[in-house]
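sanity check this:
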Amino acid sequence: MSERGDEGRAGEGAPPPEWLDRREFPFPSRWWQTEVGRMHYIDEGEGPPIVFVHGVPAWSFNVRVLVRGLSSRYRCVAADHLGFGLSDKPTGWHYDPAALATHLEAWIVGLGLGKVTLVVHDWGGPLGLAYALRHPENVARLVLMNSWMWSSEGDLRARLMARFLASPPYMALEDRIAVTARLFTRLAVARRDQIHPGLFAHFGAPFRRREDRAGLRALVRAIHGSDKWVGSLWKEREQIRDLPTLILWGMKDPAFPPRYLARWETLFTRARIERLVGVGHYPHEEAPEEVLRMIEAFLAGEEPTS
């Protein structure tokens, strides 16, 4: 039996920020204490647990439509990594991806979540799948959206892009204007007409203050610097190859093109692939109702309807 594990709620000395649209994100805030700061998370609904793991520069806000749609039958939990969303943003910490993955593992274990469905996107792939590789017996299903879990070795385009993102000029822009949150998010969206008007503001708002950008800078830089760690996860991939898996892929993603999807297809023996034509890097924002229906069908064990 899982426990709610409340260590504090918004409203108890932690009012929501003024920029947060509570009509879009009405969920009570909860807090998980790590050794360096508090992780913010939401915990909605009852039933088999679904754990959402966000990427960069996203946070739990980005799965709000999925949580609203699934929480009538499932327990939906979504945390903000340290340095992101409403979580603490310690300035003197390193934000090493392996450490963030350890926080995520401790949070899942601490909440007593059993037989989880992991829904991962972008950096949430390696961070969330690190848990699955360590605890495959406690993972019921996987849902992957535009992500990766391997080294850039042998991929010149990926290697050059990672080096560019870790370069001093790009890091200076990140430090000065949070360029990934302000610019990449707009460039990576293909279905802009489907985007909620306030979405881009909610990407950038957690990084309004310069001192709040340490985690953003670190994880953007870590695309290059943590290549070896991410590659080590791929070496353990046999641990998860037989898990029931749904792959939802935005086919117009400039960051994770279809060749990334092709690599995932070589791994899983029980994968259902849904190619979202005309969708970019954020399937759950660009086609939220479509993604929701596909996840519901997958969880119910039904054949997808096209």
